[in-house]
Amino acid sequence: MIDPRLEGREVERVAFTEKEIAERVRQLGDEVTTAYPDGDLLVLGLLKGSFIFVSDLVRQIGRSLQIDFLVVSSYGTEKVSSGNVRLVYDPQAELKGSHILLVEDIVDSGRTLSRVIEVLGERQPASIEVCALLHKNHATHLKHPPRFIGFDAPDDFLVGYGLDHAENFRHLPYIASLK
Ligand code: IMP
Ligand code: MG
């Protein structure tokens, strides 16, 4: 497939089409709505990867909520996460007593998430749950497995719908592996 957005690279395989993503996000929105009948809900997106997913997901959630983002810096290389994370942007919203729904693009080793949950847990939220669009299912040992998962992801390096390769391709409306 030739896509002018790919700077000459070619799609190896489309893992999830725009339509498939939209349908699944609608279902996830319903799941989240049902799971939080009351209380303050704070949707916290992990930047940058979750920015498109968050914006689509919140429009499918049929209850009141607030939105904020987290910026995390991990030391080490892009493709391998070390698990040593640091909050670069701290949410301005009140975390104490809120139900936090942490939204992540993809869970690979799960190390990023585990550390973020530890840090947020210190702020005394009412609960913390994770909604991940994609799960590679490498992380089977997680203390806090994602409660909401969009898709089981193939074991390829994926781009699009927020996911990047060296900051490129985040704007693709589908999710694909490249040649
Ligand atoms: P983890 O800490 O190993 O779970 O890594 C999760 C983070 O690694 C995600 O938030 C992504 O930024 C990045 N990542 C993992 N797999 C992929 C992929 O297939 N494509 C793009 N980014 C990925
Ligand atoms: Mg990311």
Bound molecules: inosinic acid, magnesium ion
Q: Element order, helices and strands? A: EHEHEEEHEEEE
Described by strand count, sense and barrel closure, the largest sheet is: 6 strands, mixed
* Order of strands across the main sheet: 4-3-2-5-6-7
Strand fraction: 25-35%
Low-confidence stretches: none
Rg, Å, rounded: 16 Å
Gap between N and C termini = 10 Å
Mean pLDDT: 90
Per DSSP, the total helix count is: 3
- Beta strand count: 9
Query: Which range best describes the helical content: under 10%, 10-25%, 25-40%, 40-55%, 55-70% or over 70%?
Result: 10-25%
Which geometry do the CA atoms define?
A: globular
- Strand-pairing-aware structural class: alpha/beta
How would you describe what is shown here?
The structure is a single chain. Helices cover 21% and strands 31% of the residues. The chain is an alpha/beta fold. The termini are close together. 32% of the residues are buried. The mean pLDDT is 90. Bound molecules: inosinic acid and magnesium ion.
Question: Would you kindly provide a brief summary of this structure?
Answer:
By secondary structure, the protein is an alpha/beta fold. The chain has helices at 18-35, 51-58, 111-121, and strands at residues 11-16, 41-47, 66-74, 85-89, 99-107, 127-135, 148-152, 158-159, 175-178.
Which characteristics define this entry?
179 residues, six-stranded mixed β-sheet, binds inosinic acid, binds magnesium ion, three-stranded antiparallel β-sheet, single chain, alpha/beta, 9 strands, globular
